[in-house]
Amino acid sequence: MAQRNLTADEIRQYQQDGVVPIRQAVDPEWVGKLLAFGQQQLNNPSELCNDGSPGAEKGRLFTDRYLWRSNALVYAYAKDSGCARLAAQAMQSQTARFYFDHLLIKKAETETPTPWHQDVPYWPFKGRQIASIWLALTPVTVAGSGMEFVRGSHRDQLMYLPEAFGASGKQKNTWTGTGEGVPCPDIEADRSQFDIIGFDLQPGDALLFSAWTLHGSPGNQSATQDRFAFSTRWLGDDAIWDPRPGTDPSVNPQEVRTVPGAHPDDNAIFPEFYAA
After folding, report:
1. Which is deepest, 57, 94, 211, 238, by most CB within 10 Å?
2. How much of the chain exceeds pLDDT 90, in percent?
3. How far is CA 210 from CA 112, 195, 271, in A?
4. Domains of the chain with CATH codes
5. pLDDT in tens, 207-236
6. Residue 146: helix, strand or coil by DSSP?
7. How do residues 92-128 score in pLDDT, each as one tens digit?
8. Paired residues of 274 in beta bridges
9. Alpha helices by DSSP H, the chain
10. DSSP letter at 223?
11. For residue 223, with 0-12 CB atoms within 10 Å meaning exposed, 13-18 middle and 19 or more buried, which class applies?
């Protein structure tokens, strides 16, 4: 399947803003396959799912993750879609290692927002070269729970305290709330004080953003359009393994062969899917 490269302007926008929309980021064949997979996953979630209203046709927030470990399609997408190269190019890294996948669904008329947050405080890594590629599988508008970002917040040199959200599934996010950082600002209290940007996307478009960029999304106000997205998380050259208290324990530190403070070069758990 076809793969693309980032343009110089896209790389520059990522570096300056902490987020860049990537139009037609992957081959359309991946979109159809992942959308069908997402529909199936709603009925057959994994142990790491969060599901606010199981079985509901509307008002349902559903997420599932780390599916690459057991699903051949998700593994193939992470390895072969070209996302690893796109992440490396944006981060200006010579390599890209895969961290995890994340299926994100907000059914029509789901009021629940995704609160403003950074990703880094939740994850057992540190480094500036850590990013996500959030692929739209359905048409997305900001009113339909499209992602919003505080432009340039990845350059603030701040880490915000992680807070539990979406903890309605089989495994509650009880590990949050004990990590490092300062309180996240109340962005919704006065949005005019922040340089907020959002993007409308078509299926196959993606948002490539730094794990240090503040982001969130409103509820899905559409009465008819579900929002399906599939995110992959990427580690660049300067990422180090840092399983500190208050970070996601989904990767068992006792199974990781990399020592804390070192680059996560354990190919069984963090496979290198791109090298320049």
Report:
1. 211
2. 89
3. 24, 16, 20
4. 8-271 (2.60.120.620)
5. 999 999 999 999 999 999 999 999 999 999
6. coil
7. 999 999 999 999 999 999 999 999 999 999 999 999 9
8. 96
9. 8-17, 28-43, 72-80, 83-91
10. S
11. exposed
Can you give the three-state secondary structure of 71-134, one letter per residue?
A: CHHHHHHHHHCCHHHHHHHHHCCCEEEEEEEEEEEECCCECCCEEEECCHHHCCEECCCEEEEE
For residues 49 and 67, what is the distance between their CA atoms, to the nearest angstrom? 10
pTM, two decimals, is 0.94
- Residues in the chain, overall count: 276
C-alpha pair distances (Å), 182 with each of 62, 117, 122, 176? 28, 11, 13, 14
**Mean pLDDT lowest among 187-191, 242-246, 256-260:** 242-246
Helices (H) and strands (E) in the chain, counts: 4, 14
3-class state of residue 220 by DSSP? strand
Tokens 């490396």 locate to 88
